[in-house]
Design brief:
This protein is an alpha+beta fold. It is built from six helices and twelve strands. The chain has a domain of about 190 residues: Nuclear Transport Factor 2, Chain: A (Roll), CATH 3.10.450.
């Protein structure tokens, strides 16, 4: 491994800053009007609809049912399509109580469509190809409200009618299979002193030179991590579970993807005693 020189660091920082500015500009052009997310609760809430009229919406092509990632974009952005892909009456479990939601009670839910990024958590690199597999026919979208200490899970299955939302559940964060890691991540993302003490020194780093498009790999120190680190989601983090296992693994790879940009960043954490530590990252 090479330790990146100050000259290389300056050039990469300039390149990454330019990319960040361009991505921010694109994000402003693509941003939809703010909408308060519809939340399924014991008392169903009514949400003001500020989206375009249904008559102007174009249903996603049938090919969207091949990959979940293609389907979920249409599900999050098209009201009519979303409602047609919910299996009613829809079971909703929260705190040990179940109720069945009818079509009349359902309110459009944009999920993470209004966020600049979404995240997926893996425990090993070989599973990172699962989102591209057409063999996946069951996905759980986890909406992890870190500050509220709860996880809302949306259970999707693919059948003859394509991908359908089959159930929704809400559980405490601590009960989630990644509960301990998510609790660590919340503090890591919000407390800079805690973050500094939970970054390996040096930490492995990989990126691409914007001028030559060649891969650059090496190690950087903690101060350089703070110069290169991406914006970390804080209050809410998503996780798309394509079937990737977590049990028995001391590794978590957090993939941060841009929803309307080419942003992609991988953060690799390894268990460190009773907690976790960042050991590698890739831009």
């Amino acid at each position: 491994m090479l330790r990146l020189t100050n000259e290389t660091m300056k050039r990469l920082l300039w390149s990454l800053s330019l990319v960040a500015v361009l991505a921010a500009c694109d994000g402003k052009k693509e941003a939809a009007p703010p909408v308060e997310p519809a939340v399924v609760r014991d008392t169903v809430e009514t949400v003001a609809d500020t989206l375009e009229p249904e008559t102007e919406e174009v249903a996603p092509p049938k090919s969207a049912d091949e990959l979940f990632d293609d389907f979920i974009y249409g599900f999050m952005t098209n009201r009519r399509f979303q409602k047609s892909r919910v299996q009613f009456p829809l079971p909703f479990d929260a705190g040990g109580h179940r109720r069945m939601l009818t079509a009349a009670e359902w309110r459009f839910n944009p999920l993470f469509a209004e966020h600049e990024t979404y995240t997926v958590i893996f425990s090993r690199e070989e599973d990172m190809q699962m989102p591209k597999s057409t063999a996946v026919d069951s996905v759980v979208l986890e909406w992890c409200e870190l500050s509220q200490g709860r996880v809302r899970s949306y259970f999707f299955e693919r059948g003859k009618a394509g991908w359908m939302l089959m159930a929704v559940g809400e559980t405490p964060l601590a009960a989630n299979e990644n509960g301990d890691f998510l609790a660590f991540y919340q503090r890591f993302a919000t407390d800079s002193l805690y973050q500094r003490s939970h970054v390996a020194d040096p930490v492995e780093f990989r990126t691409y030179d914007s001028e030559t498009f060649e891969e650059i790999s090496g190690v950087v120190d903690v101060d350089q991590w703070f110069a290169f680190r991406p914006d970390l989601p804080r209050d809410v983090i998503t996780n798309l579970r394509y079937g990737q296992p977590y049990a028995g693994s001391d590794c978590r790879i957090v993939v941060i993807n841009g929803l309307s940009s080419s942003l992609s960043c991988n953060l690799t954490f390894k268990r460190w005693g009773k907690t976790w530590r960042l050991v590698a990252f890739q831009n």
